[in-house]
Amino acid sequence: MLEDVLVGIVTDLQMLKTAFGKAMKMGPVEQIDPVKGYRLKLGEGPDGPFLSPWYPHPETGKSSIPLKKGQVVGVVNPTGDPRQGFLIRGGYSEANPSPNDNMDANVFEDAGVRITVAGGALRVTAGGVTVVISGDGLVVSGGMVQHDGRNIGSTHTHGGVLPGGANTSEPN
Q: Is the pTM of this model over 0.90?
């Protein structure tokens, strides 16, 4: 009778240790699927990486910022069951470094676009074009500036130029 009670306690303890050990995991993203979400690399096995089950995309408000392969995330499995788990962004890694080393700036960089908010200014860079909005005004560098399909940048021209105080025609 006492032996049965002790066996039951030991079994319960082992089950709790297992559930607790599975409740939170960290690892890099290994597989990405737009519908299924993400699988993490939790270790290496003889046949390749040991992968987690699919976890859903972590909520980031009304934005969509997919995780990248190699990005470190944490997994919370509330009951110890990985099928009920969810991901928590975990930070940067060698495979997914920070786009920023200025701790006074907020930087978003993805898909060839970089957005920096720092020093009272918003800077957006895409390809060879940079737009800066600050207390000094709006500055556009590179590329062409258009409005309603018309070039209004530094290379635009006007027709109807007359000497004196007359107005020119709209930009060509």
A: no
